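Board notes (copied after class):
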Amino acid sequence: MNELYYKPKKDDHIVCWFSCGAASAVAAKIICDEYKNVRIVNTPVKEEDDDNQRFRLDVQKWIGKEIELASSGVSSIVDVFEKRKFMSSPHGAPCTAEIKKKARRIWEKENHFDCCVLGFTAEESNRAERFALNEGVNIYPVLVDKVLTKGDCFSILKKAGIKLPKVYYQGYPNANCIGCVKATSPTYWNHVRKVHPEVFKERVEQSSRLGAKLVRYKGKRITLSELPLDAYGEPMKDMRHECGIFC
């Protein structure tokens, strides 16, 4: 295993961060099957699809362990953008820091743990390494260690009879917020415009008012209001075509 990672000992206390996605669900199941001192924690975000919380409860029943909720006191990305007066930057989006990271830091200060588990899949080993280098906690990327891909996770959930969050079936690549401002692809944003026009309209209004150019098109940044209806870049990975959902 990569020397950046921590391999939990038998009696270690482990926190598994659950994002309401397929990968973190499988990571939680595996770690709970292999270790006894595990807590699973989710940080809800208002702009995620409501079906994410149905999925959380289904996974909770499958694992046989409560999935706790953690909060920074803020749950809406729209509120964060209004407070911070920007929506995205080369260093990331303020919603990640204000909602996800801050909630995790608060939880870490108040609770004892020896390492954390997140749902990085085998194809996301670079992300797992960056987390290990930058976050100051022991990380055990169990899916990377076991060489499980996102498609593998879909297959495992299908065999377990767990229905995936609705957004996967709507063509989104993950179960994050709808209208995620970290996305710059015109393909993604025109998909949002088609499937969730009310969300697209809200992002157009706020980004125009705050001066945020969220899309990269033909080599330059443009606003959502400038995005042509027929603008497409690289194909968006459509999870409906991954083995494990429909095959």
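Comment from the instructor: The chain is about 40% helix and 10% strand. The chain has two domains: 14-168, 186-241.
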